[in-house]
Structure prediction request, 345 residues.
Amino acid sequence: MNAILKKYKVTTLSEFIIERQADFPYATGEFTRLLHHISVAAKIVNRSINKAGLADILGTIGTVNVQGEEQRKLDYIANELFINSLKNSTECCGVASEENDEIVNFEDEMSREGKYIVCMDPLDGSANLDSNVSVGTIFSIYRRISPRGEKAVLEDFLQEGQKQVCAGYIIYGSSTMLVYTTGKGVYGFTLDPSIGEFCLSHNGIETPKSGKIYSVNEGNYKSFPTGIKRYIDYCKEESPATNRPYSARYIGSLVSDFHRNLLYGGIFLYPQTHSKPEGKLRLIYECNPIAFLAEQAGGKASTGTKRILEIKPTSLHQRIPFMVGSYRLVKKAEEFMQEASVNQG
Ligand code: AHM
Ligand code: MG
Prediction:
Protein backbone atom coordinates (compact mmCIF):
# COMPACT_ATOMS: atom_id res chain seq x y z
CA MET A 1 0.00 0.00 0.00
CA ASN A 2 1.43 3.39 -0.83
CA ALA A 3 2.19 5.92 1.89
CA ILE A 4 -0.92 8.05 1.31
CA LEU A 5 -3.36 5.15 1.57
CA LYS A 6 -1.55 3.74 4.61
CA LYS A 7 -2.72 6.80 6.57
CA TYR A 8 -6.32 5.77 5.99
CA LYS A 9 -5.92 2.11 6.90
CA VAL A 10 -7.98 1.21 9.93
CA THR A 11 -8.43 -2.15 11.61
CA THR A 12 -11.87 -2.51 13.12
CA LEU A 13 -12.53 -4.61 16.20
CA SER A 14 -14.51 -7.10 14.12
CA GLU A 15 -11.65 -7.52 11.64
CA PHE A 16 -9.16 -7.84 14.46
CA ILE A 17 -11.03 -10.54 16.34
CA ILE A 18 -11.62 -12.53 13.18
CA GLU A 19 -7.90 -12.28 12.34
CA ARG A 20 -7.03 -13.34 15.88
CA GLN A 21 -9.56 -16.15 16.01
CA ALA A 22 -6.82 -18.64 15.23
CA ASP A 23 -4.99 -17.62 18.44
CA PHE A 24 -7.93 -18.85 20.38
CA PRO A 25 -7.87 -22.53 21.30
CA TYR A 26 -10.58 -24.52 19.51
CA ALA A 27 -11.98 -21.33 17.98
CA THR A 28 -15.22 -21.90 16.14
CA GLY A 29 -16.41 -18.34 15.72
CA GLU A 30 -18.71 -18.50 18.75
CA PHE A 31 -16.46 -16.34 20.87
CA THR A 32 -15.99 -13.90 17.99
CA ARG A 33 -19.77 -13.50 17.76
CA LEU A 34 -20.09 -12.98 21.51
CA LEU A 35 -17.49 -10.23 21.56
CA HIS A 36 -19.12 -8.62 18.55
CA HIS A 37 -22.43 -8.46 20.44
CA ILE A 38 -20.71 -6.89 23.44
CA SER A 39 -19.29 -4.20 21.18
CA VAL A 40 -22.71 -3.51 19.66
CA ALA A 41 -24.24 -3.05 23.14
CA ALA A 42 -21.32 -0.78 24.02
CA LYS A 43 -22.10 1.50 21.07
CA ILE A 44 -25.77 1.75 22.05
CA VAL A 45 -24.90 2.46 25.70
CA ASN A 46 -22.38 5.03 24.50
CA ARG A 47 -25.13 6.78 22.53
CA SER A 48 -27.39 6.88 25.61
CA ILE A 49 -24.61 8.22 27.84
CA ASN A 50 -23.73 10.92 25.33
CA LYS A 51 -27.22 12.32 25.28
CA ALA A 52 -28.09 11.59 28.91
CA GLY A 53 -28.50 15.25 29.86
CA LEU A 54 -30.96 15.78 27.01
CA ALA A 55 -32.99 12.61 27.24
CA ASP A 56 -34.04 12.77 30.91
CA ILE A 57 -32.09 9.64 31.77
CA LEU A 58 -29.93 11.07 34.54
CA GLY A 59 -30.78 10.52 38.21
CA THR A 60 -32.08 7.54 40.13
CA ILE A 61 -35.10 5.29 39.64
CA GLY A 62 -35.90 4.90 43.34
CA THR A 63 -34.79 1.27 43.70
CA VAL A 64 -31.69 -0.27 45.30
CA ASN A 65 -29.71 -3.24 44.02
CA VAL A 66 -28.70 -6.31 46.05
CA GLN A 67 -25.73 -4.39 47.46
CA GLY A 68 -28.02 -1.71 48.85
CA GLU A 69 -26.89 0.87 46.27
CA GLU A 70 -29.33 3.26 44.61
CA GLN A 71 -29.96 2.31 40.99
CA ARG A 72 -29.73 5.06 38.44
CA LYS A 73 -31.73 5.19 35.24
CA LEU A 74 -28.61 4.57 33.18
CA ASP A 75 -27.57 1.59 35.36
CA TYR A 76 -30.90 0.05 34.47
CA ILE A 77 -30.70 0.96 30.77
CA ALA A 78 -27.11 -0.27 30.36
CA ASN A 79 -27.91 -3.53 32.15
CA GLU A 80 -30.94 -4.21 29.94
CA LEU A 81 -29.01 -3.35 26.75
CA PHE A 82 -26.07 -5.62 27.55
CA ILE A 83 -28.31 -8.48 28.67
CA ASN A 84 -30.39 -8.24 25.48
CA SER A 85 -27.33 -8.14 23.30
CA LEU A 86 -25.78 -11.15 25.05
CA LYS A 87 -29.04 -13.03 24.65
CA ASN A 88 -29.16 -12.14 20.95
CA SER A 89 -25.66 -13.50 20.47
CA THR A 90 -27.02 -16.98 21.37
CA GLU A 91 -23.46 -17.89 22.44
CA CYS A 92 -24.02 -17.10 26.10
CA CYS A 93 -26.21 -19.17 28.40
CA GLY A 94 -26.31 -16.79 31.36
CA VAL A 95 -25.12 -13.56 32.91
CA ALA A 96 -24.14 -12.35 36.37
CA SER A 97 -24.51 -8.60 36.73
CA GLU A 98 -24.01 -6.06 39.48
CA GLU A 99 -27.61 -5.02 38.88
CA ASN A 100 -29.22 -8.48 39.32
CA ASP A 101 -29.42 -10.28 42.64
CA GLU A 102 -29.28 -13.72 40.99
CA ILE A 103 -27.84 -15.06 37.76
CA VAL A 104 -29.88 -14.33 34.63
CA ASN A 105 -30.47 -17.54 32.69
CA PHE A 106 -31.24 -17.45 28.98
CA GLU A 107 -33.92 -20.08 28.53
CA ASP A 108 -34.17 -20.32 24.74
CA GLU A 109 -32.79 -23.46 23.14
CA MET A 110 -29.96 -21.75 21.23
CA SER A 111 -28.66 -19.85 24.27
CA ARG A 112 -28.79 -22.98 26.42
CA GLU A 113 -26.42 -24.52 23.90
CA GLY A 114 -24.06 -21.52 24.34
CA LYS A 115 -20.71 -22.43 25.82
CA TYR A 116 -19.98 -19.13 27.57
CA ILE A 117 -21.17 -17.20 30.58
CA VAL A 118 -20.56 -13.49 31.17
CA CYS A 119 -20.01 -11.56 34.40
CA MET A 120 -20.41 -7.79 34.12
CA ASP A 121 -20.74 -4.46 35.76
CA PRO A 122 -22.84 -2.72 33.10
CA LEU A 123 -22.10 0.81 34.32
CA ASP A 124 -19.28 1.16 36.77
CA GLY A 125 -18.81 4.50 38.51
CA SER A 126 -22.37 5.51 37.70
CA ALA A 127 -22.52 7.76 40.78
CA ASN A 128 -20.38 10.10 38.61
CA LEU A 129 -22.84 10.30 35.73
CA ASP A 130 -24.77 13.40 36.67
CA SER A 131 -21.53 15.42 36.81
CA ASN A 132 -20.41 14.20 33.37
CA VAL A 133 -17.41 12.24 34.64
CA SER A 134 -16.19 9.14 32.76
CA VAL A 135 -17.84 5.82 33.53
CA GLY A 136 -17.28 2.33 32.19
CA THR A 137 -18.57 -1.18 31.54
CA ILE A 138 -16.55 -4.15 32.79
CA PHE A 139 -16.99 -7.66 31.40
CA SER A 140 -15.53 -11.09 31.90
CA ILE A 141 -16.15 -14.27 29.89
CA TYR A 142 -15.75 -17.87 31.07
CA ARG A 143 -16.42 -21.24 29.52
CA ARG A 144 -19.32 -22.81 31.36
CA ILE A 145 -18.74 -25.85 33.56
CA SER A 146 -22.31 -27.14 33.34
CA PRO A 147 -23.22 -29.23 30.29
CA ARG A 148 -24.29 -27.42 27.13
CA GLY A 149 -28.02 -27.66 26.52
CA GLU A 150 -28.83 -27.20 30.19
CA LYS A 151 -29.45 -24.10 32.29
CA ALA A 152 -26.38 -22.28 33.60
CA VAL A 153 -25.71 -22.90 37.30
CA LEU A 154 -24.09 -20.79 40.02
CA GLU A 155 -20.84 -22.79 39.80
CA ASP A 156 -20.37 -21.56 36.21
CA PHE A 157 -19.96 -18.05 37.64
CA LEU A 158 -17.87 -18.90 40.68
CA GLN A 159 -14.71 -19.86 38.79
CA GLU A 160 -11.28 -18.54 39.67
CA GLY A 161 -10.27 -15.45 37.72
CA GLN A 162 -7.41 -17.34 36.10
CA LYS A 163 -10.02 -19.34 34.17
CA GLN A 164 -11.29 -16.25 32.31
CA VAL A 165 -11.14 -16.64 28.55
CA CYS A 166 -11.60 -12.94 27.97
CA ALA A 167 -11.93 -9.76 30.01
CA GLY A 168 -12.32 -6.17 29.07
CA TYR A 169 -13.89 -2.81 29.65
CA ILE A 170 -15.43 0.01 27.75
CA ILE A 171 -14.53 3.49 28.94
CA TYR A 172 -17.01 6.21 28.05
CA GLY A 173 -14.58 9.12 28.34
CA SER A 174 -13.37 12.01 26.23
CA SER A 175 -13.40 9.32 23.60
CA THR A 176 -14.98 5.89 23.96
CA MET A 177 -12.64 2.92 24.05
CA LEU A 178 -12.95 -0.82 24.30
CA VAL A 179 -9.96 -2.59 25.83
CA TYR A 180 -9.77 -6.38 26.04
CA THR A 181 -7.55 -9.39 26.53
CA THR A 182 -7.94 -13.07 25.75
CA GLY A 183 -4.71 -13.93 27.53
CA LYS A 184 -2.48 -12.94 24.61
CA GLY A 185 -1.82 -9.29 25.31
CA VAL A 186 -4.07 -6.28 25.78
CA TYR A 187 -5.59 -4.37 22.87
CA GLY A 188 -7.42 -1.06 22.83
CA PHE A 189 -9.91 0.19 20.23
CA THR A 190 -11.23 3.73 20.01
CA LEU A 191 -14.75 4.34 18.76
CA ASP A 192 -14.72 6.43 15.62
CA PRO A 193 -18.19 8.01 15.79
CA SER A 194 -18.08 9.02 12.12
CA ILE A 195 -18.05 5.37 10.98
CA GLY A 196 -19.56 3.82 14.14
CA GLU A 197 -16.69 1.35 14.54
CA PHE A 198 -14.19 0.54 17.27
CA CYS A 199 -10.80 0.91 15.53
CA LEU A 200 -7.48 -0.45 16.74
CA SER A 201 -5.63 2.42 18.42
CA HIS A 202 -3.57 0.74 21.17
CA ASN A 203 -1.88 -2.37 19.79
CA GLY A 204 -0.36 -4.53 22.55
CA ILE A 205 -0.66 -2.33 25.64
CA GLU A 206 2.16 -2.76 28.14
CA THR A 207 1.87 -0.93 31.41
CA PRO A 208 5.02 0.72 32.84
CA LYS A 209 6.71 -1.49 35.46
CA SER A 210 6.74 1.49 37.78
CA GLY A 211 4.99 4.84 37.92
CA LYS A 212 4.23 7.82 40.08
CA ILE A 213 0.46 7.90 40.46
CA TYR A 214 -1.42 6.54 43.46
CA SER A 215 -5.22 6.37 43.33
CA VAL A 216 -7.20 5.77 46.49
CA ASN A 217 -10.14 7.33 48.31
CA GLU A 218 -7.95 8.92 50.95
CA GLY A 219 -10.98 10.19 52.84
CA ASN A 220 -11.05 6.67 54.29
CA TYR A 221 -7.40 6.86 55.41
CA LYS A 222 -8.15 6.59 59.13
CA SER A 223 -9.93 3.29 58.73
CA PHE A 224 -7.40 1.61 56.40
CA PRO A 225 -5.24 -1.28 57.65
CA THR A 226 -1.86 -0.17 59.06
CA GLY A 227 0.06 -1.53 56.06
CA ILE A 228 -1.99 0.57 53.64
CA LYS A 229 -1.65 3.70 55.78
CA ARG A 230 2.12 3.25 55.81
CA TYR A 231 2.19 2.66 52.07
CA ILE A 232 0.22 5.87 51.46
CA ASP A 233 2.62 7.77 53.75
CA TYR A 234 5.47 6.28 51.69
CA CYS A 235 3.84 7.51 48.44
CA LYS A 236 3.89 11.05 49.85
CA GLU A 237 7.45 11.04 51.17
CA GLU A 238 10.08 12.98 49.31
CA SER A 239 12.68 10.77 47.62
CA PRO A 240 14.02 12.02 44.30
CA ALA A 241 15.79 8.68 43.75
CA THR A 242 12.47 6.81 43.69
CA ASN A 243 10.45 9.59 42.06
CA ARG A 244 8.48 10.39 45.19
CA PRO A 245 6.26 12.04 46.21
CA TYR A 246 3.86 10.36 43.80
CA SER A 247 0.89 12.25 42.38
CA ALA A 248 -2.56 11.55 43.83
CA ARG A 249 -5.23 11.00 41.16
CA TYR A 250 -8.65 9.61 42.02
CA ILE A 251 -11.74 9.88 39.84
CA GLY A 252 -13.93 7.41 41.73
CA SER A 253 -14.61 5.36 38.56
CA LEU A 254 -12.58 2.17 38.67
CA VAL A 255 -12.40 1.86 34.88
CA SER A 256 -11.15 5.43 34.41
CA ASP A 257 -8.69 5.27 37.31
CA PHE A 258 -7.35 1.93 36.08
CA HIS A 259 -7.17 3.01 32.43
CA ARG A 260 -5.13 6.12 33.24
CA ASN A 261 -2.73 4.16 35.46
CA LEU A 262 -2.45 1.39 32.84
CA LEU A 263 -1.19 3.92 30.29
CA TYR A 264 0.94 6.13 32.56
CA GLY A 265 2.01 3.74 35.35
CA GLY A 266 0.52 3.85 38.82
CA ILE A 267 -1.38 1.98 41.51
CA PHE A 268 -5.09 1.89 42.35
CA LEU A 269 -6.16 0.75 45.82
CA TYR A 270 -9.54 0.03 47.40
CA PRO A 271 -8.66 -1.61 50.72
CA GLN A 272 -10.90 -2.80 53.53
CA THR A 273 -12.31 -0.01 55.76
CA HIS A 274 -14.24 0.00 59.03
CA SER A 275 -17.54 0.36 57.21
CA LYS A 276 -16.52 -2.03 54.39
CA PRO A 277 -14.51 -4.75 56.12
CA GLU A 278 -14.30 -6.82 52.91
CA GLY A 279 -13.49 -3.81 50.70
CA LYS A 280 -15.97 -2.30 48.26
CA LEU A 281 -15.22 -3.79 44.87
CA ARG A 282 -16.78 -7.03 43.70
CA LEU A 283 -14.55 -9.97 42.85
CA ILE A 284 -16.23 -11.56 39.87
CA TYR A 285 -17.25 -8.57 37.75
CA GLU A 286 -14.89 -5.81 38.88
CA CYS A 287 -11.63 -7.16 40.33
CA ASN A 288 -11.14 -10.33 38.27
CA PRO A 289 -11.49 -8.76 34.82
CA ILE A 290 -9.34 -5.76 35.77
CA ALA A 291 -6.75 -8.10 37.34
CA PHE A 292 -6.59 -10.23 34.15
CA LEU A 293 -6.03 -7.11 32.03
CA ALA A 294 -3.40 -5.79 34.46
CA GLU A 295 -1.41 -9.03 34.43
CA GLN A 296 -1.64 -9.32 30.67
CA ALA A 297 -0.21 -5.80 30.39
CA GLY A 298 2.70 -6.74 32.69
CA GLY A 299 1.16 -5.36 35.89
CA LYS A 300 -0.04 -6.99 39.09
CA ALA A 301 -3.29 -7.33 41.08
CA SER A 302 -3.68 -8.44 44.65
CA THR A 303 -5.77 -8.19 47.81
CA GLY A 304 -2.59 -7.02 49.53
CA THR A 305 -1.75 -10.57 50.51
CA LYS A 306 -3.11 -12.81 47.73
CA ARG A 307 -3.13 -12.82 43.94
CA ILE A 308 -6.67 -11.88 42.84
CA LEU A 309 -6.84 -14.39 39.97
CA GLU A 310 -6.27 -17.37 42.31
CA ILE A 311 -9.20 -16.64 44.62
CA LYS A 312 -12.11 -19.06 44.41
CA PRO A 313 -15.27 -16.94 44.61
CA THR A 314 -17.86 -18.02 47.16
CA SER A 315 -20.78 -15.84 46.10
CA LEU A 316 -21.89 -13.71 43.15
CA HIS A 317 -21.51 -10.31 44.76
CA GLN A 318 -18.52 -11.11 46.97
CA ARG A 319 -16.35 -8.09 47.79
CA ILE A 320 -12.60 -8.12 48.15
CA PRO A 321 -9.81 -5.65 49.05
CA PHE A 322 -8.12 -4.64 45.81
CA MET A 323 -4.81 -3.19 44.67
CA VAL A 324 -3.85 -3.15 41.01
CA GLY A 325 -1.42 -1.47 38.66
CA SER A 326 2.28 -1.27 37.87
CA TYR A 327 4.15 -4.36 39.01
CA ARG A 328 6.69 -2.68 41.29
CA LEU A 329 4.18 -0.40 42.96
CA VAL A 330 1.78 -3.23 43.83
CA LYS A 331 4.67 -5.35 45.04
CA LYS A 332 5.81 -2.54 47.31
CA ALA A 333 2.30 -2.10 48.73
CA GLU A 334 2.19 -5.85 49.43
CA GLU A 335 5.50 -5.57 51.28
CA PHE A 336 4.02 -2.88 53.52
CA MET A 337 1.02 -5.14 54.24
CA GLN A 338 3.33 -8.04 54.99
CA GLU A 339 5.55 -5.99 57.27
CA ALA A 340 2.56 -4.63 59.20
CA SER A 341 1.14 -8.11 59.73
CA VAL A 342 4.51 -9.40 61.02
CA ASN A 343 4.80 -6.45 63.43
CA GLN A 344 1.22 -6.94 64.64
CA GLY A 345 1.43 -10.68 64.69
P1 AHM B 1 -20.32 1.08 41.37
O1 AHM B 1 -20.07 -0.23 40.72
O2 AHM B 1 -21.58 1.09 42.19
O3 AHM B 1 -20.25 2.24 40.42
O4 AHM B 1 -19.15 1.29 42.50
C1 AHM B 1 -17.85 1.01 42.17
C2 AHM B 1 -17.09 2.30 42.15
C3 AHM B 1 -15.78 2.17 41.43
O5 AHM B 1 -15.88 2.55 40.10
C4 AHM B 1 -14.89 3.11 42.18
O6 AHM B 1 -13.55 2.70 42.14
C5 AHM B 1 -15.44 3.06 43.57
O7 AHM B 1 -16.77 2.62 43.47
C6 AHM B 1 -15.42 4.40 44.23
O8 AHM B 1 -15.87 4.27 45.52
P2 AHM B 1 -15.74 5.47 46.59
O9 AHM B 1 -16.75 6.48 46.17
O10 AHM B 1 -16.06 4.82 47.90
O11 AHM B 1 -14.34 5.98 46.52
MG1 MG C 1 -18.97 -1.15 39.76
User: Anything to note?
Assistant: The two ends are 66 Å apart (CA to CA). The CA atoms of residues 270 and 322 lie 5 Å apart. Residues 30-50 form the longest helix (21 residues).
